[in-house]
Design goal:
Chain lengths: 332, 332
């Protein structure tokens, strides 16, 4: 069975790391049909639209999408594309790797971020010359759906500990956002209780203090949308930067995979970007499509290259994107 | 001239660290009249109210307040008290000290957190069985007032670098919250431009990645309310925990000072809590009331004790609150 994969390089280093990930996918015995689409600053400059309707359709119609990065237009591109795949959860593993200089080498956390609402629901109003409002939206149904996913994730042993007993932590700010985060918290904890999954909780500010102090106390972390954005980026700072973090926007029967990093304008075009996050995003894509063994092969190859080199400049090496990609392919 | 200081110990270790801070204040040649008030879980249990009207009035009428911590009722106590002193900015220095084990010993950042609006404005509605909303509020006037304070702060050399040229960084999420954080960002940058203060900006998620990677690139950081809460708590994790962080809620002619930490129920009542954050809050109170020299004396004494001991358990020592307080008083 062939899989149709929408491929959107976007801007900046997206144009370098996505081809690297495709090269890795093509080296496997999996039948892919790649359909290229455009989105981002460059296409907006050319056409006035950061996300052409055609690209949106390609993503909505594909079996899965591999996305790179967009510049200024990031929000205009990625937020609608998350909708295009009907994504309700953003899966963001943050893991330190042997051989990579990390502030907290023991970090191994997977964030499951609500992907449809919170402040991202985006109802904003300019009520006067002085005052604007944003309506933050939380539903029990979206919170429950996220929690169901989290429970399955843990039950399937997909958490860092690989043990269904590890449960998850829910991070929120329900002492201030009593009605909205109160609803989120209650819905998530209720699902965990129904399914017999262990769940504890942490206020998001306390979580931000405790994660750097001792990341080993956390495994799977379930968060509202913005909290998941910020706390997973914090974790990136503990494992050595955004160059390593893949992510998956998972929907009901579609998904989009993207490195957490941006376009890195300072190094774009030089062929020296770290392809790791994009290649690990491709590994998540493989697993999502049922090619678990191939996903593991890619991960193992990536980990071996991270620990033995060659490495790109962000990791203290001087290898090119091409050399690192070739080394990964070599070890598949 | 005597200063009337409202003193609210609150719950848990608040009952231990506030008396320690008072002991330090009483050792100085400054004329204080202390007025004790009650707030928190214990008084709610006794009277049904976490914040008695009398306490609110004491705080509103005092020249300044020293507050400890409240347990479950923290939000019911501290949010109205910030209003009682008409506070528009929450000043939160996060500094690593020699002698204290810190993940990032080079951290020296002061957060200036908007203290009246954002999600804390607190309009929440339960619109259906499934859906709740929160109205996040941002005004140009509050944003400008915060920015004016930030400019003065920097101009007066009160930033970590002590240099008016250091400027400040504004952290926000205006790529998603375009209208509200867009308004915040614009207002803050406009004031900086008007006053000739250097200002750069960072998305709050990128800030959360970059602060642990290299805190030395930041000095004064200006944030919306919730961002300031979370990002300053993150900084606490880099300097060795909440036991060291003081804070000031500054209003137009009143202010409330509090350690950033909570009630620490696990060690409350044992006389082993670290008084540093409360004593440094008292130093901020001294400076606020114009006793800059005395404030410096307290800081210097605290820093000397941190570097030479005695130390409490959270810092790897086994000294009591009393012993640490006595050592600070000794070195004044
Ligand atoms: C570009 C932006 C809208 C996006 C977000 O906030 O979700 C990004 O920060 C991310 O986390 O993927
Ligand atoms: C207790 C809570 C309401 C408070 C806040 O969120 O402001 C606390 O976290 C703080 O930062 O002082």
């Amino acid at each position: 069975m062939s899989h149709e994969i929408a491929v959107i390089e976007g801007d900046g280093i997206g144009r370098e790391v996505v081809p690297a990930a495709i090269e890795v996918l093509e080296a496997l015995e999996v039948d892919f049909e790649f359909v290229e689409g455009e989105a981002g600053d460059a296409v907006r400059e050319a056409t006035g639209e950061a996300l052409p309707a055609e690209t949106y359709e390609q993503v909505a119609d594909a079996d899965a999408t591999l996305f790179g990065a967009a510049g200024e237009t990031a929000a205009d591109v990625i937020l609608p594309l998350r909708e295009a795949v009907d994504s309700f959860v953003n899966v963001r593993p943050a893991k330190a790797y042997p051989g990579v200089d990390a502030l907290r080498p023991e970090t191994d956390v997977v964030f499951l971020r609500e992907n449809t609402e919170g402040v991202y629901a985006g109802h904003e109003d300019r009520l006067s010359d002085d005052l604007s409002t944003l309506t933050r939206v939380v539903t029990s149904s979206a919170s429950r759906e996220l929690a169901e996913y989290a429970c399955e994730f843990v039950e399937d042993g997909r958490g860092p500990a690989g043990d269904p007993e590890e449960g998850f932590t829910v991070a929120h700010k329900s002492n201030v956002m009593r009605e909205t985060d109160g609803r989120f918290r209650e819905a998530v904890l209720a699902v965990a209780e129904e399914r017999g999954v262990d769940a504890d909780e942490e206020l998001m500010d306390a979580f931000a203090t405790k994660l750097p102090l001792d990341p080993s106390q956390y495994g799977v972390v379930v968060c509202p949308n913005l909290a998941g954005d910020v706390l997973s980026d914090l974790a990136a700072g503990l494992v050595g930067g955004l160059g390593l973090l893949p992510s998956a926007n998972v929907g009901h029967d579609n998904a989009l995979f993207e490195p957490v990093h941006g376009t890195a304008p300072d190094i774009a075009g030089e062929g020296i970007a770290n392809p790791t996050a994009a290649v690990l995003s491709a590994a998540m894509l493989l697993e999502y499509l049922g090619h678990v063994e191939e996903g593991t092969r890619v991960r193992t190859a990536v980990e071996s290259v991270l620990s033995e080199g060659p490495r790109t400049g962000d990791l203290g090496g001087d290898a090119t994107t091409e050399a690192v990609t070739a080394a990964i392919v070599d070890r598949l």
